[in-house]
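Q: How would the structure tokens look for this protein?
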Amino acid sequence: MALIFSDTEYSAHYQKYMLPASEKMVQMMLSYLITKKGKPFELAVDVGCGTGRYTRPVAPHFEKVIGLDISESQLNKARRSTSEKNVLYHTSPAEEMPLKDASVDLVFAGLAAHWFIIDKFMQEAARVLKPGGCLALHAFIPIFEIQYQDVSETLTAIITETMNVLFKYRDKTSDVMNNQYRELFEAVPFADKQSYANIFMGRWKEAYNWAHGPFGANLVLWKRYIDDVLCVWRASEEDLVKFKDYLNTNN
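A: Here is the predicted structure in token form.
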């Protein structure tokens, strides 16, 4: 785990500013699970749950949901933010889940699996999943595009070149994400598996094309993929919160 996740101040900012889970992503997981296993949905486990960003939205669909993380700082935020009675949080590494064999319907990890020891995690996921249970791993990759007057193409080329240079010094976890989880997909120990890449959230793109509205002038860079938004904002924090509320209302 990156040391930053154990920092209380970081966890507070993560909880405050990280955008909530994508309902489309949740529905994709549920649709796959119902096709492969069917109901009832008894137990889901969010591995590397952080502050519970995906734990809570999954809760209405299962009898019980467990969030696991090794960061007490993240889990403390998750517990304080969770009102769902069927959600529990435990301190646990992804590679040693405190769960019985063949007891889980869905094991999932949103923006977390690249931190795991992959082979050990896959073995553990296979151990705890029920026959027909599903494993879902998802994240996002940054694709840089700047929209600004008549110099959008030039600015996009500059930031892309800059990021390509910086990426040479990134760690292995960044490589896993940038490769769109291909390494993780290949490590999944099940014959029946599917991979989805470049799943773009079209209606969020429309929110950017709505740039003539009250927020558009403040957006310098914008990309929305299945898990998060990447944007550069040049106005007040108060206006950013209003813009986030608009997006969450129009997901």
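Residues 152-166 form the longest helix (15 residues).

Residues 1-141+180-198 form a domain with the Rossmann fold fold (CATH 3.40.50.150).

Upvote if useful.
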